[in-house]
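Onboarding guide, step 5: your first structure request.
Type a short instruction followed by the sequence, for example:

Predict the 3D structure of this protein.
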Amino acid sequence: MYALSRNDMMAETESVVEFGVFTDELQDEIERFKDEFRRYLKSGIFLIDQVNRFMVKGQGKTIRPIMVFLCARLAGGRVIDETIRAALIVELLHNATLVHDDIVDDSDIRRGLPSIKKIWNNKVAVLYGDYLLAHSLMAMLELRDFTVFDILSVTARRLAKGELLQAAKTRKLDITEEVYLRMIADKTAALMSASAELGGLTGGGGEDERIALRNFGENIGMAFQIRDDMLDYIGRAGILGKPVGGDLKEKKITLPLIKALEDADDSQRAVILRKVKKRRAKEVVKFVRNSDGLHYAYDKAAEYTSKAKENLNVFPESINKKLLIKLTDFVLRRNK
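The system replies with structure tokens like these:
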């Protein structure tokens, strides 16, 4: 049984302190990125700029840009203008997917604030998501680098595949662990993989270093999403910025529930799946908490963070390598 411990209750403070290590170290790069982000989106059109201000206000930890910067530093020791632009591209693409996700999932909350589709409407949200996507493509073209095109075109295709696979499986509720892992690889790990590789590329890393960073990003992305899915069962709404059991209300079956269902007998499995269909999230959360599903998911996430650390073995010891290792630990233990 997975019991909420004192450590879980204290994890919000711990997560904030841990993440401050990265924001403090990268303060200059983050400020340059934020200035470029705001400047790049400014349109002079009242509605667009109003949504821009709201989105910037609700921006998350910017973990993908931070990965870009740390990987650039690790590969070449410096962050140049092209690195800032690469971070801009991945963050724009990421936010475009979030805006569209909220429409598809009919989500009213994003990072503790009303979603864009909730404040305005679905039409504005669709068009604004397209606006972000168009700007990410413009920023990509401005880099004038065919390797960047290759990385991001593969990433965009994977993102679309992951979303479509999730939509199909949500309707049928027949997702297996194998399918789940393939889905989150495309939905989440693909963009983190691109972030790490783009950092290595713009930082001046060679092919072997770029491949190592690509794999590092892929593995940390897998762990990130598994941990995110765990938080749907163990978090608190005030910390997460979304209701506990929110994924269940959208009929999303993730690894903790997949494992719990696998260990259940046929009759119990049928009962729980009916509860998922009826969106009775509290009862399903209780079922998962009383199973081995959360422990199993944690161990799986830990496997991916271990692989991510191994991917960094091609690099000599440095402060940036230590920070990336700390980032893998943060991803595994984060509470929001």
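Each response can be followed by summary notes, for example: Residues 17-333 form a domain with the Farnesyl Diphosphate Synthase fold (CATH 1.10.600.10).
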